[in-house]
Design a protein that fits this description.
The protein has helices spanning about 10-15, 35-40, 50-65, 75-90, 100-110, and strands spanning about 5-10, 30, 115, 130-135. A four-stranded parallel β-sheet has the order 2-1-3-4. It is α/β, with parallel strands linked by helices.
Length: about 140
């Protein structure tokens, strides 16, 4: 079994499935990006199903109570330039990857933290910049 990391960023996919994930698969100190919080805030508005909207609102409120999100700041914005350049160098078509995932990756790059995800394709071609761990 791999050694548990002291700190890392969990992306939105991990926050959504958090209750189903073994805590030992995550870092000792879990962080989320403000970008993840933005995705969670938008989620209730992205469905017409009343029950699903309520589940998403509940998830947002739990996340807001549990996490003090890392800001997408100037360092993250600069790191995003590196993330974009890495994608452009790897595969011109890759620039169409999910933009939100790339912003989360930029936050991780700026803070030298690994990203924990359930959707590794959101971070493909970024292995030279950020460690991506599948949970």
């Amino acid at each position: 079994m791999a050694e548990r990391r002291p700190r890392g960023i969990i992306d939105t996919s991990v926050v959504i499935d958090l209750e189903a994930i073994d805590p030992s698969a995550l870092p000792a100190e879990v962080a989320v990006s403000a970008i993840t919080m933005a995705e969670l805030a938008a989620a209730p508005h992205a469905t017409d199903n009343i029950d699903e909207r309520a589940r998403r609102q509940d998830r947002l409120q739990r996340a807001e109570a549990a996490f003090d999100p890392l800001p997408f700041d100037t360092d993250s914005a600069r790191a995003y330039g590196r993330v974009y350049a890495e994608l452009a160098a790897a595969d011109r078509k890759a620039r169409g990857q999910r933009a939100v995932g790339l912003l989360i990756a930029a936050t991780a790059v700026a803070l030298s933290l690994p990203v924990y995800t359930r959707n590794p394709d959101d971070f493909r071609h970024l292995g030279n910049l950020v460690e991506v761990l599948l949970v």
